[in-house]
Design a protein that fits this description.
Arginase, Chain A; 8-stranded parallel β-sheet; 10 helices; 8 strands; alpha/beta; globular; about 35% helix
Amino acid sequence: MTHCILIGAPVDEGQRRPGCLMGPAAYRTAGLAGTLSALGHTVEDRGDVTPAPLGNETCDNAAVHHLPETIAWTRALSAATQDALPHGMPIIMGGDHSLALGTVAGVAAHAANAGRPQFVIWLDAHSDFHTVGTTTSGNLHGTPMAYANGREGFAPFPPFPNPIPGENICMFGIRSVDPAEHAAMQETDITVNDMRVLDEQGIVAPLREFLDRVRAANGLLHVSLDVDFLDPTIAPAVGTTVPGGATFREAHLVMELLHESALVTSLDLVELNPFLDERGRTAKLMVDLVGSLMGRKVFDRPTRSYG
């Protein structure tokens, strides 16, 4: 049994399509707490995080927008995640992926205090390896992995606590990478299991290889699950759709393998935009995936009608 700590992160400033701020409410409405309780876990909902008053930070890249807001969220979510970890498994309900600037900072700080290595599996269509200086869109939801890996170019963000080495990061299911991001990742030891790798090798072997590395190091594992990891035909409620994502069966298999590993210590649910959803189907699917991550087996899944 796990004590699950739900933390709402209504972050909407990391991209330009409004709606992700409704994500925490959608997860609650879709029955996330009830799903976890039915599996025997205890649930504590700490409500939505509220950032401190904004600063007046600026940067040299004119494309970047909502910089003070994103820095405020980063500080607040780092503190909230770090505060939750000694008491259970934080599940951060987003909110766009810029929230991971804070959540991954929080888990990394906790791991350093515990004297254990931090690992991250990034379930996403995108590598999110831009910096404040290299982003051309100005959307800071495309920067968290570069921040976590300790790349230069993040002033005026607070320094990342205990940067995560590339060999402790696995990008899984990516299929949209900008040239600048690709060039930067070539200089790291990050494991990149893009959709080509998964098509050739399947889901199981690459994922188990990474999980074995986490286990051997006695590491803590943070899972960051972006809606666009999934194929848009099954998960339309995201503003950054990329064709060719994980199928329903592949996504549940990933979650079941993560559960069986017993290694996951924290979880992000990001980029759900309920304004783009169809009768809540994406929110319900994401909740079902959390159910699989927390122990529900495929044969336990009820028949459902969307009619």
